[in-house]
Structure formats: structure tokens, C-alpha cells
Amino acid sequence: MKNTARFKKSSTRFRALKLAAIAVAAVLVACGHSKVAPQPAVRAAHRPNTPPWGAAAKTELRKVLGAALAPAVAQSYDWSCAVVAQNGELLYSDRGDRAVVPASTQKLIVAAAMLAHFDTGYRFHTRFASAQAPDGGTIAGDFWLVGSGDPSLRSDDLRRGVEKLRNSGLRSVGGGVAVDASALSGPELNPFWNPGDANEDFMAATSGVSVDEDTVEFRVSATTPGAAADVRVKPQSSAVSYSGSVETGNVTDVTVDATGTPGIFQIGGTVRQGKLHIYYLPVHNIPHYAGIVLSQFLREAGITVAAPPRAGKAPRDAYTLWDHPSPALTQLVHHMMIFSDNHFAEQFLRVLGATSGRADDPHGIAAERAILKAEQVPAPGLHLVDGSGLADANRVAAITLVRLLAHADADPRGNALYPVLARGGLDGTLKRYHFAQASGRVRAKSGHLAAVSALAGYVNTRHHGRVAFAFMFNGVRDAADGPIVAAVDSIAER
Q1: Residues 463 and 413 occupy one common structural domain
Q2: Helix, strand, coil shares, percent, the chain, to 5
Q3: Which of 247, 316, 410, 473 has a 20 to 30 A CA-CA distance from 160?
Q4: Between vectors from CA 404 to CA 402 and to CA 410, what angle results, nearest 5°?
Q5: Of 378, 383, 380, whose CA–CA distance to 394 is shortest?
Q6: If you average pLDDT over residues 265-290, what whole number do you get?
Q7: Could you report the per-residue pLDDT of 180-225, keeping only the tens digit for each?
Q8: Which positions ≥6 away from 369 have C-beta within 8 Å?
Q9: Helices and strands: H and E segment counts in the chain
């Protein structure tokens, strides 16, 4: 599938917002600040005493939900819907225990698992290291880049780290850049993903060292009519090259396509004069790519590097030259949920895998299942193959999602999941949901694939406290969003 201005217009804009949010977080962390605005609360206050649902109220709720969702049901070949009260009572179920394709609502599982297994303030650390401390401005051996699976690491973070070492007196590296990506294992791309999406930024590689979400920027700006546009690659390095050109014209219709060789792209089309246009393309063989980029940063800073980059495992007693902490886990999960960031979800899944024996997808999924079991969350028909919900092979039942949400809401310490969810009509992927009665009272995770429309989260009712809901429809896409919004509005006014 081509990465074109027509196809990717909204995705490109959205990607820019995502990366800008990560960049702000990285700068604030580098400056000694740990918060990013808007900063989600670590936990939402627990509200155990809510008015019960009487028989008449429950009957009426089932009636209005059935009517609201009927148009979506009529267009779907499969669906799964459920609503649970704050006290755990099942209020509504229409095939609630039937596992269907969940799309990105599946990210609720990896989010809840990360928040359950790690402290909300947990941070990933990326290090520069060497076998021994520098002597006289020289590192005798290799310059190590050691990853921990941080999904938010940016090339600008690496550049700033290099600048700090340059300012501290480092002038030469006797070996080369060596990249240790062993924190995560498994193939870069999940075999269950659609190969037709391999050129899209939402299907980036997964790696123990992840740079710019394993994508590269093509920045295209118009010059004079009829002349070639200015095309720049960020970060600039010998790891990425392209052939072709973009002409300055009356319309913007840019193509940036991968070729059969990793890191080599073909560009073409026209760009209209005006603002800068940015396209994000996935890169592969990430340890090699990161090594080339970091070597370039060192040389640009005036630090000589004697050998080419390589991949390997850093010495266990390596000397730390620079330590870069990520934003806190709560902020990273918040980012993933707001922007439905597939890359964050996949990195998280393998991090979970490390807690159950191996940092790969199967062990990550095993860790998720173990947490669901420990929290007594039912999982009928559960079948997971990734962390993001990008694969059509995933199956999750609505009852699994609502019980997971309800478990978080029953935590006496407060709900850690609620604050990281997008606010309906206001944040990220939920901006286009136009709620009425539920406006300002719903937090949720949306999910869309070619034939999937789903929404799962919380809505605060007028008289019965907060409820958890999950509505998933297979066989339709945007056509089900209206009925879902109507259903959530119906719950909110109860």
C-alpha cells in the first residue's frame, strides 16, 4: 500500500501530533521535569457507594440500548456488547461472551497489564556505555547504545546525549558504535499483520532499541512552480536514501514507497506551495539503523569513530556514559491510549514477556493471560497474536473488556486505568465522537479496522455512578460509530 498524501493525509497529521507529544515529554524529562501537560492523574478516586440499579431501570436500559445499537447489529456479521455497573452487576449483554475482532480496544489489555505489573512511575532507561571510563577524551573500545524497550526514544534524545558527551570532553572512539537491542526479542514485524501495510507508519518494527518509533521522516516543501521540491530526510544518515523527485505544482499528491531493499525509498508526485509536508516511513533492521544514525551524530559533534557500527550484547559491568530516562509509565500508557499508538503497544507486550521468561510476543501474551486470570477476568474465546489489535486474527469478548475495566474501578487505591483513557470528543482518536448526554462524562478506547468499529471504556451516569461498557461490531466500520455514540449517550442519561 502506498504512503501517499491522499491516503495518509490524516494519518500524517496525527503522526506529527503523536511524535510532538513524545518530543515534549523527552525535553521535559531531559530538563529535570517529570510531568507533561495535560498530565493524567496517577489514579482516579474510587467511588464505592453508588445508587443501585432497580429492576425497572435495568429493563429500561436494556430496551434503549437494544434500540440504539440495532442499526449496527443489522449491518454486522458478528458483534459483542456488554455493560457492567460499578458494583460489578452485569446490566446488559448482547453476545457479551462472544469473542470478536476487537481492533484497538485490545490495547486496554496491554495497558491494564503494564499498570498492574509495573509501578505507575516506572521509567525505561537507554544508556550510552563503554567497557572502561574514557581516558583523555578517548574511549578505547566500542561505544555502546543499550536499549530497554523504551517506545518513546527519539533520535533527538540521542543527539542531545552525544552533545553532552562532547561538552564533557569526549573526542574519539577507538572502536565503533555497538547496539545492544537484546532487551526485546522476536521478529521485527508480527507475522499475523497484513503485509500490504508494510509501508505504513502504523506498522513499524518492534525492537529493544527503538528510535523515532522506528520510522524516518521525509520532509517535503515546495520551491518554485515547475521546479523540484526540497526533500529532506530526518534524521539524515547513510542508512536511508531515495531516488526520484517531487515537483512543485498546483496539488499535493506525493508518494513515498519502500523498495525491495531496506532503507531505500522511491519518491514522486507533486507538492503545492504552502506548509511543510511530512511523511513517515518505517525502517527495518533497527539495531543496524540506530548504529548508523548514532555514528553520524558522533561525527557531526566532532567525535571520531574508528569502526563501523555493529550489533551485540554490552558487557555486564559496562561503564555508563549517559543515562536517558523515559517519561513515567503512566504518561507512556496515556500516550498509547490517546493516540492509539500501535508501536507503544507492541513494545509494551514484549516488555511484559520479559516478566514471564522471554521478551517476545508469545510470552507477553502469556503474561497478559496470567494477569487476567489473577484479576478473575473472564476470557471466553480469547485469542491474541499481538499487543495493539492490528491483526485480524485477534479475538476478544466484550465481557473480558468490561470486567477488566470494572476490576480497575474496584481497586481501593483508585483506578489507574481511567485517567489514561481519551475523553470523548476531546482527545486523540475520540475527537471525532460527538457525544450529547455523555459529553464530558465518557473516557474510552476506540477501535477501527477495515471491517471493525468498536468502543470500550467508562461513562458516568446521572443517577447510578460510573459504568463500564464495550461495544464491538465486525462487518462495518464508521457506520457503527453513530449507534455506539447513541448507546453511550443512552447510558449517560440513566
Answers
A1: yes
A2: 35, 25, 40
A3: 316
A4: 100
A5: 383
A6: 93
A7: 999 999 999 999 999 888 888 888 999 999 999 999 999 999 999 9
A8: 379, 382, 384
A9: 10, 24
